[in-house]
Amino acid sequence: MRLRILFILLLCTLLFVSCKQKTKETETILEQPKTETSSKLPKKVLSPHTSTMGMVGDAHIHIDYSSPGVRGRIIFGGLVGYNNVWQAGAHMATWLETNKDLTIDGKVLPAGKYGFFTIPSKEDWTIMINKNWNQHGKDDYDEKDDVIRFKVTPIITDEITEHLEYKVNKLSETEGTISLAWEKVTISFPFKLNQ
User: Please, how many CA atoms are within 13 Å of residue 176, restricted to the half-sphere of its CB?
Assistant: First the structure.
């Protein structure tokens, strides 16, 4: 009987020491500093995908785009060359969707989804609203698919808009404006609900 008790005590002691050793090993592993690869944060997106929406009367207007930053660069006449087609955003072409027919520059834009492109220049910008909304950049842009094409005069300021920003502004129940601002440039154009 004594031998059995001694054996059980010895077994319990071994188990206790073994468990204590495992706990120490676990604590040591937990206390080790994180390696460089495990502590890396996700990379910041330089041109985040975003959208803007607005209601004018019962018209819902949605603009979807990627919003690049200025980041100390010359944008218009630099990164975005003058007199070249630009997808008016980064990555995929910017698109505009309306659930109601709109009148822009005296022309009717039927309800639907469209690519939004520009040709910036120092004096004026050409705005193109194009049937082909699902494009990467301006790669597939074709002038023959333009539904509406018109010119606007840019507003130049000393104040910098760091990230490209679109707005749909309500002026009344039947009228509004769409604007684009980036770097020191803002362009804006009016639209009316086609009643």
Answer: 21
Are 88 and 31 members of one domain?
no
Count of C-beta atoms within a 10 Å radius of residue 156: 11
Question: Which among 40, 55, 59, 73 is positioned nearest to 163, based on CA atoms?
Answer: 73
User: CA 183 to CA 161: how far, in whole Å?
Assistant: 5
55-87, pLDDT tens digit by residue?
A: 999 999 999 999 999 999 999 999 999 999 999
Nearest to 161 by CA among 71, 44, 48: 71
Q: Domain containing 71: what range?
A: 49-193
Please give the structure tokens belonging to residue 180.
């684009």
Residue identified by tokens 């994180």 is 34
- Report pTM: 0.76
In a domain, 75, yes or no: yes
Residue 73 CA, distance from chain mean position: 19
* Nearest-angstrom CA–CA distance, 92 and 95: 9
User: CA 148 to CA 127: how far, in whole Å?
Assistant: 8
The reply to whether 31 and 96 lie within a common domain is no
